[in-house]
Amino acid sequence: MINSLIETLGFSVCHQLSSRSLLIGNITLPVCSRCSGFYAGFLITAIILFIMFRKKESDLPPAYILIILAIFLLSFIIDGIASNFGLYNTNNNMRFITGVFCGSSIAIILYPVFTFQYYKYPGSEKIFKNPPKFIIYILLLALFIIVTLARFTFLEYFYYYLTVLSILFTFYFINLVIILLIPPFSKKATGLISRYLILPSIIAAALSFIELFAFYWLHKAIERL
After folding, report:
1. Residues of the chain with pLDDT under 70
2. Half-sphere CA count of 29, side-chain side, radius 13 A
3. DSSP 60
4. CA distances from 55 to 10, 109, 113, 200 (A)
């Protein structure tokens, strides 16, 4: 039952071609390697950012980091286009890596937007103002990629359910940021865990469900064409 729901969720956001999906142990992840990387990269980056920046930093990172993030996003786009049009041969490892780069880049851009809109008194500093923090972040991201692509059998279920959690969190967080742009919901909280998070979270979760439901039936309709 649970696995069926997970596969349905994966179908909502991905083509689910088994040849393009990571096989860890005896389990094929519920979305392709590129999607797995994208959603996992978003979640892992969000976790790191919330741990690393506790002073409510709400400004975008320095210009050189934005350039690096742009390169990450571009690598995702180029690899996707080149793969689909047969311009060069790629593989699931590369798809996963570029997916992680893309998802992590989007999370880094959205995090200060969330902080600025959510907190009543956000900090004015840039995230990754200090280069050592960015280096630590990159090393943690690289470690996650290496461990994932090692495909340890004992981690098969961990990655299967991590992928599901990543999809749900990505939709939730993006919708949450959008909701916080609406004045009645913005700039009220003084701490991360706050009553001002409850209603926006409920709305964001509801929007995520509606979007995933719509994407599922859209995918169904496309398959029938």
Report:
1. none
2. 33
3. P
4. 36, 17, 14, 22
Q: Rounded to 5 degrees, what are φ and ψ at 126?
A: -75, 145
Q: What is the pTM of this model?
A: 0.95
Name the one residue in this structure whose structure tokens are 């992680």: 100
Write 110-114 long-range contacts (CB < 8 A, 24+): 110/173, 110/174, 110/177, 111/46, 111/49, 111/50, 111/53, 112/57, 112/58, 112/59, 112/60, 112/61, 113/177, 114/173, 114/176, 114/177, 114/180
The angle formed by the CA atoms of residues 188, 192 and 196, to the nearest 5 degrees, is: 40
Q: What is the mean pLDDT of the chain?
A: 94
% the chain with pLDDT above 90: 84
Per-domain residue ranges of the chain = 26-224
Contact 104, 72 (CB under 8 A): yes
